[in-house]
Amino acid sequence: MKKNLFYLFALICSVSLFTSCSDDDDPVYPIEEELAGTYKGTLDIELDGNPVGVGLPKNITIAKSGNNIISLELKDFSFMGNNLGTIKLEKCALKQNGTSYSFTGNQELNLANGIGKCNVDVTGTLNNGKAEVNLDIAVEQLGETVKVVYKGDKLTGSESSEAQITSFVFKDAPIITEQPIIDDATGKITFKVLDDATDEELAALVPTIEISLKATISPATGVKQNFASDVTYTVIAEDGTVKEYIVSLAGRQVAMKFPFDEWKSVGAGKSKHDEPIEETLATSATAASLLWLYGIEGFPLYKETEDVVAGEAAAKLVTMDTSAKMNSLVPAITSGSVFTGKFVLDMKDRLNSTKFGVAYEMKPAYFRGWYKYTPGDKFIDGTGATKPEDVVEHPEITDECAIQAVLYEAEDAEGNEVTLTGNNINSSEYRVAVAVLDDGTAKAAYTYFDIPFTYVNGKTYESGKTYKLAIVCASSKDGDAFKGAGGSTLWIDELEIIGE
């Protein structure tokens, strides 16, 4: 009996020893040191032999599950617009072949979006920081197999995760009225075009795009796209982080343009001068054309044909120092001006002569155009002056120009027509929105301005109300107060109001 117990004990010990030796014989691979980590690469997907995705950017994660076992995780697996969730295979057996490792695994998964149970077979290799993975996903509900081929490179962990479009611009595109606005939170980029822009013009747009450092983008910058419909851009960060942006047309706008290309001759003899042909534009040049009667030569407005931005001509506004001849009819200075509206000479109230504004039926968005400016040498103040001796010189002051647009209510509470003049264009309670050039200092070359309308006194644009729009350009910004410098010259060209 004792002998039998001894043999039984020996047998148990030998089994334990065999088991222990067997565990010790399992291969131990340097998974955490060499293989585990995140891999950045792309997926190719086939559904029953038909390609449904090629070169799709995706990261996979490999982790240690045992001495010779790894797990593989593919997050947010999507194809054909369906996100099936995360594919995670817990136990994939490793085998070493020199410096390369191969692995296999099988697992039943329950995928999202109603796909349900799927049997997943995986095979792959890991070699010198490169991963190749083949997944066969048998979708029970569809009775079809999805084949996935993945290739990627292992990340170091120091790569940037930034995947942003930082700038998106259409250059040299006349149909664009509002450059793209990037909403990074929603991934939406929107822009606006002229009301008469065609699908052919939209299909010919070429964007200039800037993105996060070390990221890539598809489609690439500088490549023509058809923006007649939405265009999707995919940005991939250095570490494989993916962000999509959808670029779409947000609306169409109408441009009121003043190119100053066509002019007409007005008056006769010494009063003969040129004025823009646009009926909505007015100037004080007609009144100034009578100054020759007082021995004053020149005009406050000229047609400029040599120095233009585009087209045939531009407008040149010149401040006239008339202080030496001033009297009850001759002001100290006559500022060059162009404005929308009418000039109706009022001898008793010179500022009342400028009737600003024309009917405008849209909501103004931007005031745009080109200008350059040279201030005159001697700044004078003729406010309240009645004779030349009353005029005060200010050598410490440099003249500036003025360019602005004003939207105002065209009717008062009783329904009477409202017309703003030089007395109240900058102060009237009827003003609703303004676009004012902030920098009226010297500009040696034509300078572009693009000014958004801002609303005053808490007012808003109300559809159904009647409005007038005044554009006012002057070679001396305080010319309405009879302040400025003789010879101050303002060139303007290609003015436009963008409204919707």
Automatic annotation (TrEMBL):
Tell me which stretches of the chain form a coiled coil: none
Which InterPro entries does the record match to this protein?
Lipocalin-like, PCMD, Put_CMD_sf
Pfam family of the protein (one) = Calycin_like
Q: Does the keyword Signal apply?
A: yes
Q: Which stretch is the leader sequence?
A: 1-19
Which intervals hold domain Putative carbohydrate metabolism? 297-498
What is the protein name stated in its UniProt record? Calycin-like beta-barrel domain-containing protein
Claim: Signal is one of the keywords in the record: yes
**Which keywords has UniProt assigned to this entry?**
Signal
Give residue ranges for domain Lipocalin-like. 35-152
